[in-house]
UniProtKB/TrEMBL annotation:
Pfam families: Pyr_redox_2 (PF07992), Rbx_binding (PF18113). Its cofactor is FAD. Residues 306-376 form the Rubredoxin binding domain. Belongs to the FAD-dependent oxidoreductase family. InterPro entries: FAD-bd_OxRdtase (IPR050260), FAD/NAD-bd_sf (IPR036188), FAD/NAD-binding_dom (IPR023753), Rbx-bd (IPR041364). Signal peptide: none annotated. Keywords: Cytoplasm, FAD, Flavoprotein, NAD, Oxidoreductase. It is found in: Cytoplasm. This is Pyridine nucleotide-disulfide oxidoreductase. Residues 3-292 form the FAD/NAD(P)-binding domain.
Length: 380
């Protein structure tokens, strides 16, 4: 039995490990567009201050991991097509047969429609190569404009500050982390980061970026101007679905998979940032990958196992304002109960019957993560 996995992020490597545990003799092939080196992607947004280089972020080199897991690794190779009737995947130079195929393709960064001579220089950081470019471009720079006040934008802003670089953060929403936090929690985080030097430019978009004398002049929708030496975009990610779509695999926001991680083709599975689990949820975080990989490995080796997601609170890596969030699911009905003081915010999203459905814990309150997590429902 050959299982071919496309990708080499945490989803691909975790699945390979789980599969190897479940089936010592299984043939596992991993085809990836990058080097295949294993690193912690969440570290990318808090690596500057600690002086991490792309090299020191690598936890296990690809060749070593491939040997440990007895995986055939085909790196620096992009899969260009899936021929489902012949059960082969195609690259520019070869085709590879599979019995089972797993898509662990990740997500692409969103590019904003911005005008001006500097628009093409906007950076985003979604892998080790991007981080390498970002680090090089940052040399001697003292002010970065960050586009996006979501989880990744706020983390980069805090990391830049810790590295001694000023950060100005833009967002169309009128508050930071608007999709994850209730209003008072956003205000608390904004205040804490502002005290350390973050400049917030919220409720606006950047319209134009002109490159002038090696710096960038940003003009926003409120008509204000700002000069920064580098512009980093962190406005979000979109699951990579094209390869699946082109071969007739159903996709919506992500590649659609059922409770077993299976697409509409019984031989093809998906997990990680590219997947839309249970036909509903795009869960672009590490913990869902672990749950999905364990279950899919069992199913691939003949023991059908549904993917179950427990509550999976996410730590926001803003050291100047420790925060843990577990937002309610879209279908949850309830209200936020918010307790806030100078030391923190404890926001609990509760149903009419008092059941805890979501939470946002900031500052001192983040220490209650453990105690409250057990009361949260899983993702179903
Ligand atoms: P990826 O790691 O993106 O891997 C995709 C792989 O597919 C890559 O190897 C790529 O080369 C390969 N690939 C794509 N297309 C092809 C093709 N056609 N042919 C061959 N190979 C292909 N999550 C948390 O839970 N907590 C955090 O604090 C956190 N912080 C984050 C900070 C940053 C800056 C970022 C960007 C993300 C963060 N996340 C965090 C999200 C988390 O890192 C991701 O959910 C996770 O890493 C996704 O793993 P993946 O394997 O699905 O995708």
């Amino acid at each position: 039995m050959n299982t071919t996995i496309i990708g080499s992020g945490v989803a691909a490597w975790t699945l390979a490990r789980e599969l190897r545990k479940a089936a010592p003799d299984h043939e596992i092939r991993l085809i990836t567009a990058d080097s295949g080196d294993f690193y912690s992607k969440p570290m990318l947004s808090n690596a500057l201050a600690s002086g991490k280089t792309p090299g020191t972020l690598v936890m296990t080199p690809a060749a070593k991991l491939a040997e440990q897991q007895n995986v055939e690794l085909i790196s620096q190779t992009t899969v260009t097509a899936i021929d489902r009737s012949a059960k082969v995947v195609r690259t520019a130079t070869a085709e590879y047969p599979y019995d089972q195929l797993v898509l662990a393709l990740g997500a692409d960064t969103i590019k904003l429609p911005i005008e001006g001579s500097g628009a093409g220089d906007v950076l985003s950081v979604n892998d080790l190569t991007d981080y390498d470019t970002f680090r090089r471009e940052l040399e001697d720079k003292k002010h970065v404009a960050v586009l996006g006040a979501g989880l990744i934008g706020c983390e980069f802003a805090n990391d830049l500050l810790k590295a001694g670089i000023k950060a100005t953060v833009y967002d169309l929403a009128d508050r930071a982390l608007a999709r994850l936090l209730p209003e008072q929690a956003s205000e608390f985080l904004q205040k804490k980061l502002a005290e350390q030097g973050v400049q917030w430019k919220l409720g606006r978009s950047v319209k134009r970026i002109e490159k002038i004398d090696g710096a960038y002049k940003l003009e926003d929708s409120k008509g204000e101007q700002e000069t920064a030496e580098l512009v980093l975009s962190a406005v979000g990610l979109v699951p990579r679905t094209k390869l699946a779509q082109d071969s007739g695999i159903s996709s919506d926001r992500g590649v659609l998979v059922d409770e077993f991680g299976r697409t509409n083709d019984a031989s093809i599975y998906a997990l990680g940032d590219c997947a839309q689990y249970h036909g509903k949820y795009v869960l672009p975080y590490i913990m869902p990958v672990m749950q999905a990989a364990r279950a899919i490995a069992q199913t691939l080796t003949g023991k059908e196992t549904p993917i179950k997601f427990p509550a999976m609170p996410v730590t926001i890596k803003t050291p100047d304002c420790p925060a843990v969030v577990n937002p309610p699911l879209p279908h949850h009905e309830g209200t936020w109960e918010v307790m806030a003081d100078d030391n923190g915010v404890k926001a609990l999203f509760k149903a009419a019957d008092g059941a805890l459905l979501g939470m946002a814990l900031l500052g001192e309150a983040s220490k209650e993560r453990q105690a409250l997590s057990g009361q949260l429902p899983g993702v179903a």
